[in-house]
Design a protein that fits this description.
Layout lengths: L9 H66 L5 H19 L5 H12 L2
Length: about 120
């Protein structure tokens, strides 16, 4: 029996339509998977960047706090034991001068206040 010449039959048309439809579905599925993968990668990158920015802010706040503590420590006068001994010696001399009558009560009080930084 000779083959048909001309337009394909119903079964041939249906088979061709099925192949075309299957190919289109496979292609669109691949495109959707790639788009989802790109979106997920972008979301993950944004999350990483947000975490890094948060860590930078936390580090900057900690650094500022440490710098403030350092500045406060440097601004506070340091009292060394030798400075305290020296101050005691000077107070003793002032008391001896007052007892000897060299300094009056007001002069003694003024010298003591100046020595103590009050």
């Amino acid at each position: 029996m000779p083959g048909r010449i001309g337009r394909p039959g119903l079964i041939g048309t249906m088979a061709r339509t099925a192949v075309i439809s299957g190919t289109a579905t496979a292609v669109s599925g691949g495109v959707a998977r790639r788009q989802n993968a790109r979106f997920q990668a972008k979301q993950e990158q944004q999350y990483v960047e947000q975490q890094q920015a948060y860590q930078v802010q936390a580090n900057q706040a900690e650094l500022a706090s440490m710098q403030a503590q350092l500045a406060a420590a440097q601004a506070a006068p340091a009292i060394t034991p030798s400075a305290g001994d020296d101050m005691m010696a000077q107070l003793t001399k002032l008391a001896e001068m007052k007892n000897a009558g060299i300094l009056s009560d007001s002069e003694f009080a003024a010298a003591k206040a100046k020595l103590l930084g009050a």
